[in-house]
Design a protein that fits this description.
The complex is a heterodimer. By secondary structure, chain A is mainly α. Chain A has 8 helices and 1 strand. Helices cover 10% and strands 41% of the residues of chain B. Classes of the chains: A mainly alpha, B mainly beta. Chain B: Residues 177-277 form the Fibronectin type-III domain.
Chain lengths: 219, 335
């Protein structure tokens, strides 16, 4: 009822907010520890998603909940940011680019998920989705925190309106379900990728780096 | 002329003597041995319900001139059953390999054709020289949401069969077991064993794709394993080994985040350090040969330091334990 409306509004508001002042904590702890926390968050979310996706795909019904379901990627699915990347390109990403890619992806995925939340049928699913959205929001903030503590600017306008203007709404029920299917798949793949992204960052950003930056800023 | 003929096990085979007429007089041989006339229908050789032992060279000679008129090599076999296919990535993120075999032999030559489709793209699986029934693929992209579909077709002269595998990039990640597992006793520590190992050499990038490990150990005399999971490092010290017992130890590896555990490594055996018992023999000799008042209840001269971790019971140890408790009590007072 009303509480869901308020909650959705709050989520939308947060969607457009840059990283919150909780950054002070991460600066004190050191970027190294924030990266570890972000890594842990991605693992937690991946675990949560497994249950959520199972429930959601069952709600969509066959063939979406069949383990062998392997549909071709339709052009319309390209709106959802893809984790897929060329191996050498991925290896060569700068820390800034790596973090920014994650930040942008999860910000947009979060918004798409919230649209889903508004449309979903059962109370159990709404509850699970809301919980997942909250955790995902935490991840976005956490990534933002790492970026700020390393002195990187946050990507501009991380979350536009859920559907870019001019993009077609799904013309029928089946295609709508396909959109949902790909959203969950991309989310899952991004969480797998992030674990690897943050592994790399962990190795490359020891806590000592943050101390140097603080000194440079005259702290 | 000569050629090869493939026939199914249990089939009835009729061999004609080349262009000779049905009523010509001929002699058939199998691997050089004459074949009895009862198997002939005119000049045709009839083999009923053939079995594997009937594979061989069959020759037909004209009756009087003994000219070789026809020769064929008969190979008896079966059409292929559904092949067994397995794909695995032990070198993530470089790529993966697929290997296959037939569940039962066909006894005749088979050819294998493998196709890999990723979404709409056809990929080439490069065949390995050794082993033969294996091919490998390099990933062009990482973190793909689209599944891979691998189809293996087996064909031989008597038929064909196929099988298909569909999987996600992450699902098939399974490293090789850890290498160079070494277990050593720790001097002066009767309950410890130091275990160390190395990343499998096939894992190309442990820096960016770290492995975690699972260690299991048990004394040979017990069936129950103890387990330890280690999220980093390639060594571990077991601190609860039973003194003096031989242990069997194995390690397995897994990518930190995705895929499945490797098979267990080669097992290593080790026994924790035990004290040399030779001083007891000396004591016994002394008490036997002399009626001296040297107390046999005193701590043996070789035990200079009390080992707090010792489990082996002995009268001398009671003295050590008490001393240890006193020291502990003092240190608590001083903290």
């Amino acid at each position: 009822g009303d509480s869901w409306g308020i909650f959705t509004f709050l989520c939308a508001a947060l969607c457009n907010l840059p990283a919150l002042p909780a950054l002070n904590c991460s600066e004190e702890l050191g970027a190294g520890q924030s990266i570890q926390q972000t890594y842990d968050l991605t693992r937690y979310l991946e675990h949560q998603l497994r249950t959520l996706a199972g429930t959601y795909l069952n709600y969509l019904g066959p063939p979406f909940n069949e383990p062998d379901f392997n549909p071709p990627r339709l052009a319309r699915a390209e709106r959802v940011p893809s984790a897929t990347v060329d191996l050498d390109l991925w290896r060569g990403l700068t820390d800034n680019a790596r973090l920014a890619a994650n930040y942008r992806a999860y910000s947009r995925l979060l918004c798409y998920l919230r649209v889903l939340d508004g449309q979903v049928g059962t109370a159990e699913l709404r509850h699970r989705l809301a919980h997942f959205c909250a955790s995902l929001q935490g991840l976005v903030l956490s990534i933002g925190g790492v970026m700020s503590s390393l002195g990187y600017p946050l990507p501009a306008g991380p979350a536009g309106p859920p559907a870019p203007p001019g993009a077609p709404v799904a013309p029928n029920d089946f295609l709508k379900k396909m959109d949902d299917f790909w959203l969950l798949k991309e989310l899952q793949t991004w969480l797998w990728r992030s674990a690897k992204d943050f592994n790399r960052l962990k190795k490359k950003v020891p806590p000592a780096v943050v101390t140097l930056r603080l000194e440079a800023r005259g702290f | 002329d000569s050629h090869i003929q493939y026939e199914r096990v249990g089939a009835d085979v009729t061999m004609k003597c080349g262009s000779m007429d049905w009523d010509a007089a001929v002699t058939w041989t199998a691997n050089g041995t004459d074949i009895d006339e009862s198997h002939l229908n005119g000049s045709y050789l009839i083999l009923k319900n053939v079995d594997l032992s009937q594979s061989g060279q069959y020759s037909c000679y004209e009756g009087s001139s003994w000219h070789l008129k026809y020769q064929t090599y008969l190979r008896v076999g079966t059409p292929p059953k559904e092949p067994v296919l397995m794909c695995r990535s032990n070198n993530y993120p470089k790529g993966f390999y697929c290997s296959w075999h037939l569940p039962t032999p066909t006894y005749i030559p088979n050819s294998f054709n493998i196709s890999v489709i990723h979404g709409t793209k056809d990929m080439v699986c490069e065949k390995d020289a050794i082993p033969k029934n294996r091919c490998h693929i390099r990933y062009l992209q990482l973190f793909s949401t689209v599944k891979y579909k691998v189809t293996l077709t087996v064909t031989n002269a008597l038929g064909k069969n196929f099988t298909t595998l569909t999987f996600d990039e992450f699902a098939i990640v399974k490293p090789d077991p850890p290498e160079s597992v070494v277990a050593k006793p720790v001097p002066n520590n009767p309950r410890r064993l130091e275990v160390s190992w190395q990343n499998p050499s096939s894992w190309p990038d442990p820096e960016s794709f770290p492995l975690k490990f699972f260690l299991r150990y048990r004394p040979l005399i017990l069936d129950q394993w103890q387990h330890v999971e280690l999220s980093d490092g390639t060594s571990h010290t077991i601190t609860d080994a039973y003194a003096g017992k031989e242990y069997i130890i194995q390690v397995a590896a897994k990518d930190n985040d995705i895929g499945t555990w490797s098979d267990w490594s080669v097992a290593v055996h080790a026994t924790p350090w035990t004290e040399e018992p030779k001083h007891l023999t000396t004591e016994a000799q002394i008490t036997e040969t002399t009626s001296a008042s040297t107390s046999s209840f005193m701590a043996p001269p070789t035990t200079k330091i009390c080992d707090k971790g010792a489990v082996v019971g002995s009268g001398a140890m009671a003295v050590c334990w008490t001393a240890g408790l006193v020291v502990a009590a003092y240190s608590v007072l001083f903290i």
